[in-house]
Amino acid sequence: MCSVLAAPALAAERAPNIHLAISAKGMPVTAHVKSPVRDPKYTNYTVTETFSADISTGSYYKEKILLLGDTWYNSSTCGEPPTEKWTGLPKKTMYAKVGTGTSTGSIGGCTGVTFTFQDIDYTLETKKAVGDEDVVQGDLVAKKWQGYNLKLVATIDIAITQ
């Protein structure tokens, strides 16, 4: 099962229907968009988002979890870039190991199409972090797709609870 948040990315009159879909299986995730661009004449398109998540040491200590998964997609064609990848992610944060992977799921409005989400995996390595926050930052990049170089600049703020 895949929970998806789709944010319109390019809202100008002649721009393609390119969006960003977010998968967060079982994790409470919220997003705040900071820098939408509305002019389709630019080849480079960057969205800056801050996500928030709560992680319990009681439930997730030493467990590899899907922190966040994203994909760029075109809602008119239900297509996604042939190559997307996370860049700039740390291998470790103050309290956890960070990795990448993929998962699959559906996006509303694209019946019968399976999308590949680019995942960030997170493994909490200490129980002493209760009450603290951790941060994971990285960019999801898709180059030269439908006339755009796409980049999601993502910051994930993680509140660590007991």
Explained architecture:
With 162 residues, this protein is mainly β. Helices cover 2% and strands 56% of the residues. It is built from one helix and ten strands; from the N terminus they run E-E-E-E-H-E-E-E-E-E-E. The protein has one helix at 57-60; strands at 4-8, 18-23, 29-33, 44-56, 64-74, 85-87, 96-105, 115-124, 133-145, 148-161. It has a five-stranded antiparallel beta sheet with strand order 1-2-5-8-7, with no helix packed on it. Strands 3-4-10-9-6 form a five-stranded mixed beta sheet. Strand 9 and strand 10 form a beta hairpin. Mean pLDDT is 83; it is low at 1-14 and 30-39.
Topology of this protein?
Layout: E1 4-8, E2 18-23, E3 29-33, E4 44-56, H1 57-60, E5 64-74, E6 85-87, E7 96-105, E8 115-124, E9 133-145, E10 148-161
Parallel strand pairs: 4-10
Antiparallel strand pairs: 1-2, 2-5, 3-4, 5-8, 6-9, 7-8, 9-10
Percentage of residues in DSSP E strands: over 45%
Terminal CA distance = 26 Å
Helix content: under 10%
Query: What would the principal axes of the Cα set say about the shape?
Result: elongated
Feature tags:
2% helix, elongated, 56% strand, mainly beta, 162 residues, disordered N terminus, five-stranded antiparallel sheet, five-stranded mixed sheet
